[in-house]
Amino acid sequence: MREESFVSSLGFSPYLSLDWLAILAVICLGISLFALWRRGRGTLLRTALLALLLLMLANPVLLTEKRKFLDDIAIIVMDETNSQKIGRRGEMTNAAYRELKVRLDSIESLKIETVTVKNETTTLLGDEDGTHAFDARKETLKNISPDRISATIFITDGQIHDVPENEDTLKEAGPVHFLLTGEPDEKDRVLKIVKAPTFGIVDQPLQFIIKVEDFGLSEPIQAARVTIKQDGEEVAADLAQIGSDLTLELTLNHGGANFFEITVDPLDGELTEKNNSSYITVNGIRDRLQVLLVSGEPHMGERGWRNILKSDPSVDLVHFTILRPPEKQDGTPITELSLIPFPIRDLFEKKLNDFDLIIFDRYRRRGVLPSSYLNNISRYVKDGGALLEAAGPAFATPLSLYQTPLSEVLPGRPTGYIFTEGYVPTLSDTGKRHPVTGQLRTNANRSEKWGRWFRMIEAEALSGEILMTGPSNQPLLILERSGDGRVAQLLSDHAWLWGRGFEGGGPQSELLRRISHWLMKEPELEEEQLKGIVSGNNLKIQRRSLDLAPASVSVTDPDGNVTELSLSVGEDGTQTGTIPLQTSGLHTLEDGQQKSLVAVGALNPKELHDIRASAEKIANAAKATDGGIRWLETDGLPDFRRTKPDNRQSADYWFGLRANENYEVTGYDRQAMLPPLVTLLLALAFLCIGWWREGR
User: Fold this and answer.
1) Residues 44, 97: one domain?
2) Are 370 and 429 found together in one domain?
3) Is residue 555 part of a domain?
4) Is the dihedral of CA 672, 673, 677, 683 positive or negative?
5) Distance, CA of 609 to CA of 159 (rounded, Å)
6) Which residues contact 295 (CB under 8 A, 6 or more apart)?
7) Which of 236, 398, 507, 559 could form a Cys-Cys staple with 228, CB 3.0–4.6 A?
């Protein structure tokens, strides 16, 4: 930045108004013309004297400005998006930037502004926007006048997705030059997801449409092999025609998040395999949950079970109440009975495996279900089914279900004693952390207590987790995993008191709903959970466990890099941690016991669609601003010249840096051209010469 003085203008600061000066000028002009007409002696001297007096009254002044010339600014835009991480592009970018900065720093009156462009890491939602290098340049120009821009130099592979369609908007901010990384004539294969559902019904086929494209091949290939993995296990393979859509039918195996990885075989000599795979997350939901409710006898809580299950739109309920057990024989003809016979064989032999949950509500052995059918239920649980027993008083007697083959799966063994005093159900330490009961505390006002129950069957918990307790801290609610299935025991039939609002009531509906959905393997109610959530450029990890010991999680990214993260424990027992995301793809989380997957990145990122280095997208922008394009690999850095705004700004071997010569006026000097004393002396000189001339 330099400061100089320049004559800017010659002005007037008259002692009289312009009107009076004009009148005097007319009078003087008239006198001079009259003298010339009469050919008077000394006319020219008198005219010169009058002109001098008029000029003195006009008071001419010379204005001199002090100008501070502003440094020009060269903007360097560094492309550090995902496509720039391919091969040696990142290395070439850094090397070119270092050398470019040294060269530009050596140029007088030139400053450098550096802008870095990176991809945002997002969840699998739609298409990623790609490289927004011109938007980054636009943000920089908000704080800099375009008249000060000497040039904009992009160090990129040419894959810029926000080049302005109207190139005229680029001209006012100087030439736009491009230094291209990568190599000309690269080839690559890309897998694109044309259609993919975000959710689906478990055990129902889903349609995925994919497309494989090859770029840069002189001899096209007809087909390529596509492999599909589900939750890390290969489930299918197919042959895709290059350039044509391929429809795949896949089935969800379970509820919650299902991770699909679709991969195409690489192309020989292709640029990268990063865009040969795509990761899809599909949330599995169950169409209709089939629930069988068997009530051993009519009682006050029976309607509560029915209302809760019927109010859930995802549940299909089959409910039977035993009103006439086999021992009740009074001679009434069967044809005169309005009761429906219990279809034992259909339910517990033919269609048993069609049910997602079986509930025994105050059931007791009365000869209705033979031991062989109860043995079928025990085997059904071990093979992955779900059983809930809401015990009544009969559970403490020889008529208990524990005296049947179901004892193999029931976690609580009755002692024969029944509590009949009033008590308030209490969450155990485990229950406070378990997803089934841990949130029940928020369903009642903290200033109020839950209502009392008045009956509980004492039982010894042989296995499972005790979530709720009753009198003497005895088990009230036990959850157990048996084989591949699940079992729950509620050792009281007084939950209906909460539903009736007795002594303020309690969360009956929520409790029974959560128990039922845990039994049916609702992912959000799992007591052992490890999951990752993408938030901006970070991966938030949440771990839920009944084990209070702090844990660490290892995160493996698609490139094989492993990061160890120690989790912090929150108030509700949930352990959390956050790590920055470095790349897109399928990330694996492991804590020593559990393993989960997290798909990171857009479904079809523009950045990886055509990853070849190319000048095609940027050619118009360079041409519109008279900028240059140069390949670093083959041509190296160009020479740089300071150019005038109206001159040429680039050639094959040099790039122009516009010299704008912008300045600020820091002050000015005002100097009178005819000081009064000088004018007086000149006037006296003219008078003397005139008198002398007339005296001859």
Assistant:
1) no
2) yes
3) yes
4) negative
5) 10
6) 302, 305, 319, 320, 321, 322, 361, 362, 363
7) 236
* The pLDDT of residue 60: 77
Residue pair 234/220 in contact (Cβ under 8 Å)? The answer is no
Is the model's pTM score more than 0.70? no
Structural domain includes residue 194: yes
Question: Please, which residues have CB within 8 angstroms of residue 620's CB and are 6 or more apart in sequence?
Answer: 163, 167
Q: What percent of the chain has pLDDT over 70?
A: 86
Q: How far apart are CA 283 and CA 201, in angstroms?
A: 8
Least confident of 72-81, 140-149, 215-224, 308-317: 308-317
Residue 305 has pLDDT above 70, yes or no: yes
For 42-100, what is each residue's pLDDT tens digit? 667 677 777 777 777 777 777 777 777 788 889 999 998 888 888 888 899 999 999 99
Q: State how far the Cα of 518 lies from the Cα of 609, in Å rounded to an integer.
A: 42
Query: For residue 356, what is the domain's CATH number?
Result: 3.40.50.880
The domain tally of the chain equals: 5
For 441, the token pair is 């505390």
323 and 457 belong to one structural domain? yes
In which band, very low, low, confident or very high, does the pLDDT at 14 lie, cut at 50, 70 and 90? confident
User: Tokens 């729950």, residue?
Assistant: 488
Last residue of a domain, one of 249, 268, 286: 286
Among residues 417, 378, 411, 412, the alpha carbon closest in space to that of 397 is found at 417
Q: What is the CATH number of the domain that holds 105?
A: 3.40.50.410
The edge-to-edge listing of strands for the beta sheet with 205-215 is 188-195, 205-215, 245-251
CATH number, domain of 546, equals 2.60.40.10
Cβ–Cβ < 8 Å for 99, 69: no
Instruction: Point out which residues pair with 79 in neighbouring strands.
Output: 117
d(CA 23, CA 31): 13
Same domain, 297 and 358: yes
Select from 579, 457, 450 the least CA-distant residue to 504.
Answer: 450
Mean pLDDT of 262-277: 86
Residue 256 belongs to a domain: yes
The mean predicted confidence, pLDDT, of the chain is 81
Query: Is the same domain home to 492 and 364?
Result: yes
Residue 318: predicted pLDDT: 83
Strand order of the sheet with strand 60-69?
2-12, 60-69, 663-672
Residues 144 and 173 in one domain: yes
Asked if residue 139 and residue 248 are part of one domain, the reply reads no
- Whether residue 61 contacts residue 99, with contact meaning beta carbons closer than 8 Å, is answered with no
Same-domain check for residues 316 and 431: yes
Residue 172 has pLDDT above 70, yes or no: yes
Q: Which of 519, 540, 568 is the last residue of a domain?
A: 519
For residue 607, tell me if it sits in a domain: no
Using alpha carbons, select from 140, 130, 139, 126 the residue that is nearest to residue 162. 130
Domain hosting residue 51, numbered range: 2-68+665-694
Please, what is the Cα angle at 376 between 373 and 379, to 5 degrees?
155
- What CA–CA distance (Å, rounded) separates 570 from 105? 52
What is the rounded distance in angstroms from the CA atom of residue 386 to the CA atom of residue 521?
A: 9
